[in-house]
Specification:
There is one protein chain. By secondary structure, the protein is of the alpha+beta class. It has helices at residues 2-22, 188-220; strands at 39-41, 43-47, 50-54, 60-64, 67-68, 72-84, 98-107, 122-123, 128-132, 142-150, 154-162, 171-182. Helix 1 runs antiparallel to helix 2 (188-220). It is elongated, with a radius of gyration of 26 Å. The chain starts with a helix and ends with a helix.
Length: 221
């Protein structure tokens, strides 16, 4: 009986731990708590409507979060707005538009990523680059979504702004409502039913073992 209770407790602990991971999501994706939970570098500020990456006094700004997610299929989504001031220089070698990058990285341990030191873990096969040209100046809010498969312990949504034209404070990206949601998650009632079926089967198995042990003991007598 003690062995059955011990096995049951372990099964329950693993189950509720798995449920907790399945419901894991990014922390503070709406930036209601400022930049808490996010790693930043360069010129990144919290605003009432999200956060802002700019090239104000820097040539590189980044924002990312390291979050634990179980293996599965997910969708990264967020709202963004691009803002440019003026036009890019036309003289070589500065005739480039600034660049906004949306990337996904994956890791099996914490602390594998350090953009300031150009250290990045496993990248996603599909990243997005948006040119900060004059047509994107003062654009309206847009919505972005990207599906991906995760087979690692940690997912790191990463946002970067590169100042490629070396014009100070001429580009900014506003970001809000960042979310990573699981595609086709197992509903909690179904998961609980599966757990109940498993525990019932375990109970029957243990009971059958005890009956066999009792029967063998009787025969020996």
């Amino acid at each position: 009986m003690k062995q059955l209770l011990s096995t049951t407790c372990i099964s329950l602990a693993l189950f509720f731990s798995a449920i907790g991971l399945a419901e894991a999501t990014l922390a503070n994706g709406d930036f209601s708590d400022g930049l808490n939970g996010w790693a930043t570098g360069g010129s990144v500020t919290s605003t009432p409507g999200g956060t802002n990456l700019s090239d104000n006094g820097v040539i590189y700004s980044f924002l990312y979060q390291e979050a634990a997610f179980p293996t599965g299929s997910y969708t990264l989504s967020f709202d963004y707005k691009l803002q440019t001031l003026g036009t890019a220089p036309t003289d070589i070698p500065f005739a480039f538009n600034d660049l906004f990058s949306i990337s996904l990285y994956f890791a099996n341990s914490t602390g594998e990523m350090n953009p300031s030191a150009n250290t990045f873990p496993n990248p996603s096969a599909s990243n997005t680059l948006l040119s900060m040209d004059s047509n994107s100046g003062n654009a309206n809010w847009r919505h972005y979504s990207q599906t991906f498969e995760n087979s690692y312990l940690y997912v790191l949504p990463t946002f970067e702004l590169f100042d490629l034209n070396y014009v100070n404070n001429d580009s900014a990206v506003f970001i809000n409502n960042i979310n990573v949601s699981e595609n086709n998650p197992v509903p909690a009632p179904t998961a609980i039913l599966q757990l109940g079926s498993g525990l019932l089967g375990l109970f029957c198995f243990r009971r059958l073992q005890r009956k066999k042990a009792t029967g063998n003991g009787s025969k020996q007598e």
